[in-house]
C-alpha cells in the first residue's frame, strides 16, 4: 500500500513481566512490532534467529547480564541498536551501560513518553546506516553470511560448527587486531575469565579446525599471547 509505514522491530528482554508487558503494549500502540521475553537465554536465542532494529535489555538479568547480551548482539545482530533499562538506584548504571556499547540507557521510572522519545532518537541514528550482514576476506576468498550463518570459500559452502562460525566471524570483524586466547574465550565462548571451566586449549583446537576446513593462512599465532588475522 502506498505510503504504508514499515514498522521497526523491537525485542525486550525484561525479567519483570508486569513492567515488560506494559512497555510492550505501549510500544505496539506507538507503531512498533514488539517481542518480549523474560530471561536472557530466550533473548539470546531470538537474537541469533532474527534481525531486530532495537533490543531493549534489563541491565540485571538471570544467567547473562545486560553487558553480555550486548556482546552477543554485536556478534549476531551487529546492525541492531541497543538500550539498557534498569530500576537500580546505582548512579553508575548509566555509565556502565554506555561503556559496554549500549546506544542509550533508560530508568524504569521514566515516563513512557520519555522512553518513546529515546527509542525514536536511537532508531533515527540507525536509519541511514548500511546494515552489515556479510563479512569478507578477499585474501582468503571467504564470505560469511551472518543472517543465515553460512560460510563460503571460493563460492562453495563449507560446513562449520556453531562455535567455529562464531570464531571466524569474530576474527573477520577484528582483522589485524591482536587477540589473546583469554579475549577469545570471553568474547566468543562467553565464559567469564574467572570461571573454573576455562580451557584455553579449546581456542587452539578450534583454530586448527578452521585452518584445515577453510585452508586459512591469515590466522597467525603470536607466541605466548594468541592470534592475529593479518590482511
Characteristics:
5-stranded parallel β-sheet; 8 helices; alpha/beta; single chain; 231 residues; 12 strands
Task: Please provide a brief summary of the model.
This protein has helices at 17-29, 40-49, 66-76, 93-99, 112-126, 162-173, 181-189, 201-214, and strands at 9-13, 33-37, 54-58, 81-86, 104-107, 134-137, 142-145, 150-153, 156-158, 178-180, 219-222, 226-229.
Task: Give a structural overview.
The structure is a single chain. With 231 residues, the chain is an alpha/beta fold. 39% of the residues lie in helices and 22% in strands. The protein has 8 helices and 12 strands. The strands form 3 sheets. It has a 5-stranded parallel β-sheet, with helices on both faces. A 4-stranded antiparallel β-sheet has the order 6-7-8-9, covered by helices on one side. A 3-stranded antiparallel β-sheet has the order 10-12-11. β4, α4 and β5 form a beta-alpha-beta unit. α6 packs across α7. The radius of gyration is 19 Å and the shape is elongated.
Secondary structure elements and pairings:
Layout: E1 9-13, H1 17-29, E2 33-37, H2 40-49, E3 54-58, H3 66-76, E4 81-86, H4 93-99, E5 104-107, H5 112-126, E6 134-137, E7 142-145, E8 150-153, E9 156-158, H6 162-173, E10 178-180, H7 181-189, H8 201-214, E11 219-222, E12 226-229
